[in-house]
Write a structure and sequence with these properties.
The protein has helices spanning 39-42, 51-63, 75-86, 101-118, 139-144, 148-151, 169-172, 179-197, 224-235, 287-295, 310-325, 328-347, 383-393, 423-442, and strands spanning 18-22, 25-28, 33-36, 92-98, 126-130, 162-164, 202-208, 238-242, 266-269, 281-286, 353-359, 362-367, 396-397, 399-402, 411-415. By secondary structure, the chain is of the alpha/beta class. The chain folds into two domains: 18-49 and 327-443, Aspartate Aminotransferase, domain 1 (Alpha-Beta Complex), CATH 3.90.1150.10; 52-326, Aspartate Aminotransferase, domain 2, CATH 3.40.640. Strands 4-10-9-8-7-5-6 form a seven-stranded mixed sheet, with helices on both faces. It has a four-stranded mixed sheet with strand order 1-2-3-13. Helix 3 (75-86) packs parallel to helix 11 and helix 8 runs parallel beside helix 9 (224-235). The longest helix has 20 residues, at 328-347. The structure holds pyridoxal-5'-phosphate. The site of pyridoxal-5'-phosphate has 15 residues, from helix 4. It holds the Pfam family Aminotran_3. Belongs to the class-III pyridoxal-phosphate-dependent aminotransferase family.
């Protein structure tokens, strides 16, 4: 630890200094190593120090680091776009590159609004999104996000957004309904919100296909997104799926929406797109939206200085090529099943692990004071934060979520290990997690 002039999120906490990374391990300045079980924040899909990605970045730097998009496109941005479109959900034929997840969400919100202005429906001015969701920290993204704690002090600056329930089967599915019925109930709730606002007044429904940062991975129930898609279509509303965290292979398919059998109008991606080697995000857009702009105003009225940055595109292209070349999507599914079995062994009978849920290599663990009643721990204990610290002491990185959110509590942690993790490394991760949980709980009064 050392005093720091860097202005981090946490001002009262000394951070270890990360000095190197190799595979799924990070090393700090004291020589202590950490298994990166969360990929940072579900970012480092290829782990650290991948030689192919580094070589591609060097080659791009030697040739051209940067060209502003108001003057040029670049071969590498075009090639990355072609690669993404080759594997995109049906009808998506255009990519808009940005520098991260929040920028991708902001761009998607503005694309959606501009689309309706250009097709002569300027009266559409509302977004509907979900509680206990996270879409980023810039003002538009924060407005659609459904984390009351993050929004509270900035509320006067945020556009008004209608929020409906998240798909949170463990907590909200009633005992007398099936998962499918629960999903239909959520769709009916969305329909009521649309009717309240007026079906012709809504721009888009915004949702993470698999929820991430706010409640420790929320997987959709069968049929939920199909119902949402039908509802949006019936009212001419766009569906924006935010796969900044759950996308780009994390859940075992390139896009998480593939597993739901739905195609969004706009799809945001980031994190695993560049795997942390460079900051990059993107919006994939349905052809009809971009064609509307092309035949109408001729521009998308938005932009940032670093759109389509050549080195970022080179890094992302290399990451995506490695994933394809090495068959890593299949590996995510295989390792995901191994991880699930390890969780079952470690936590199947654990009195304070209420739920372990996820897909591929994207998992959430929810702690409870009492397993039978699903009672939360007192939020004042900030158990999720304590658990993160205990895990770091064990040489393990896990991503915490919790506290009191929208009147609900909860202590969750999120695991998103790199796609290259070996079975032995996964076993080590679960072993250290179990130790960290037990040590954390031993300190609870
Ligand atoms: N959307 C989702 C679903 C996210 O999980 C995040 C970040 O965690 C964001 C958007 C914001 O991305 P960024 O932090 O790159 O701005």
């Amino acid at each position: 630890m050392q005093s720091s002039h860097v202005f981090h999120r946490q001002l009262l906490q000394d951070m270890p200094v990360a000095v190197s990374g190799k595979g799924i391990t990070l090393t700090d300045s004291q020589g202590k190593t950490y298994l990166d079980a969360s990929g940072g924040a579900a970012v480092s899909c290829l782990g650290h120090g991948h030689p192919d990605v580094i070589a591609a970045m060097h080659a791009q730097l030697d040739q051209l680091a940067y060209a502003h998009t108001s003057f040029f496109t670049t071969a590498v941005a075009e090639e990355l776009a072609d690669t993404l479109i080759d594997t995109a959900p049906q009808g998506m034929s255009n990519v808009y590159f940005v520098s991260g997840g929040s920028e991708a969400v902001e761009a998607a919100l503005k694309m959606a609004r501009q689309y309706f202005v250009e097709i002569g429906q300027p009266q559409r001015e509302h977004f509907i999104a979900r509680r206990q969701s996270y879409h980023g920290n810039t003002l538009g993204a924060l407005a659609v996000g459904g984390n009351a704690w993050r929004r509270e002090q900035f509320k006067p600056l945020l556009i008004e957004v209608e929020h409906v329930s998240p798909c949170y089967e463990y907590r909200d599915k009633r005992a007398d309904e099936t998962a499918e019925q629960y999903g239909q109930r959520l769709v009916a709730e969305l329909e009521a919100a649309i009717e309240r606002l007026g079906g012709d007044k809504v721009i888009a429904f915004v949702a993470e296909t698999v929820g991430g940062a706010t409640a420790g991975v929320l997987t959709p129930v069968p049929g939920y997104f199909k119902g949402v898609r039908e509802l949006c279509d019936r009212h001419g509303i766009l569906l924006i799926l935010d796969e900044v965290m759950c996308g780009m292979g994390r859940t075992g398919t390139l896009h998480a929406c593939e597993q739901e059998g739905v195609v969004p109008d706009l799809l945001t991606i980031a994190k695993g797109l560049g795997g942390g080697y460079q900051p990059i995000g993107a919006v994939l857009a349905q052809n009809r939206i971009v064609e509307t702009f092309r035949k109408g105003s001729g521009l998308f009225q938005h932009g940032h200085t670093y759109l389509g940055h050549a080195v970022a595109c080179a890094a992302a292209l290399a990451v995506q090529r490695v994933i394809q070349r090495d068959g890593l999507l299949a590996q995510v599914r295989e390792r995901g099943a191994q991880l699930q079995a390890l969780f079952q062994d470690a936590f199947g009978e654990h009195p304070h692990v209420g739920d372990v849920r996820g897909r591929g290599l994207f998992w959430g663990v929810e702690l409870v004071a009492d397993r039978a009643s699903k009672q939360w721990f007192d939020p004042e204990l900030k158990l999720h934060a304590r658990l993160k610290r205990a895990a770091m002491a064990e040489g393990l990185m896990v991503y915490p979520a919790g506290g009191s959110v929208d009147g609900r509590c909860g202590d969750h942690i999120l695991l998103a290990p790199p796609f290259i993790s070996t079975p032995d490394e996964l076993a080590q991760i679960v072993h250290r997690l179990r130790t960290a949980i037990d040590k954390t709980l031993a300190g609870v009064p």
